[in-house]
Amino acid sequence: MTYTPPRRSNVTPYAPQAGSQTRSSRPAPPGATPGGTLPSSPSPRAATPDPLAYARRFIRDVPDFPKPGILFKDITPLLANPRALHVVLDSLAERFIGDHVDAVVGIEARGFIFGGALAARLNASFVPARKPGKLPAQTDRVSYKTEYSTAELEMHKASLREEARVVIVDDLLATGGTARAAADLVHGQGGTVVAYAFVVELSFLNGRERLLPVRIESVLSY
Ligand code: AMP
Q1: How many CB atoms lie under 10 A from the CB of residue 177?
Q2: Which pLDDT score, from 0 to 100, does residue 42 have?
Q3: Which of 145, 147, 152, 218 to mutate to test the pocket of ligand 1 (most atoms within 8 A of CB)?
Q4: Ligand 1 pocket member 107 (CB < 6 A)
């Protein structure tokens, strides 16, 4: 007689239930973390048929970080939730299915998370654009302004082949200065920016004006 193993669900639980004893080793829900707020507490899958609406719940607003007056959109609760992360990665990747993309340039640091995952899914190279002094070999460098600072970005020389088709990825589009700087690095190496991709877009800052007419994809807009 053959043994049939008990059926296992391949669905990963995404949030601890209130009062649950069975998953007590998992971290507390992100909304419970002091210092920021989530729009509403995560609710069961059946109650959230819109996956992006579900993912949006895991973007935490942290006021006055890193400077007074800045409302920081914290993606770490989203990273901590397997379902929300899948939803966002799927949404990013499906926008490029069938497109010719040679390389994904991810912007340090949060752009590495989403850019690396996107590159793997698109079977494209991943190229990091980093803050100064982090890359070990010879680099190209550009200066730019963000919503709250002035900064520089570097990319290893010869990271891209001539006319490489590139998608630039970051976690968030604010004023567009950072993404624009990454595009300058790409252009300096003879690449073409075919699209920008962001998890979050702060549309009230009009950052996309600085990036148009290049295609812009953002998963969650505020
Ligand atoms: P910007 O160059 O103004 O478009 O700024 C985008 C970069 O700064 C991204 O790398 C973001 O991670 C970060 N950033 C700017 N504003 C915010 C914000 N309100 N919340 C979270 N990250 C931000």
Answers
A1: 19
A2: 55
A3: 147
A4: yes
- What angle, rounded to 10 degrees, do the helices at 110-122 and 82-94 form? 60
Q: Which CATH architecture has domain 100-221?
A: 3-Layer(aba) Sandwich (3.40)
Catalytic (active-site) positions:
110, 147
How many Å lie between the centroid of ligand 1 and the Cα of residue 208?
A: 13
For the chain, report the end-to-end CA distance as a whole number of angstroms. Answer: 59
**Cβ within 8 Å of residue 120, ≥6 positions away:** 126
pLDDT tens-digit series, residues 121-164: 999 999 999 999 999 999 999 998 776 678 999 999 999 999 99
d(CA 40, CA 47): 13
Tokens of 144: 């730019």
pTM of the model: 0.83
Q: What angle do CA 210, 127, 185 make, to 5 degrees?
A: 40
Q: What is the pLDDT of residues 54-89, one digit of tens each?
A: 999 999 999 999 989 999 999 999 999 999 999 999
Atom of ligand 1 nearest to the CA of 178: 2
| Dihedral sign computed on CA atoms, order 40, 42, 45, 47 | negative
Domain ranges of the chain: 100-221
Q: Whose CA is nearest to atom 13 of ligand 1?
A: 172
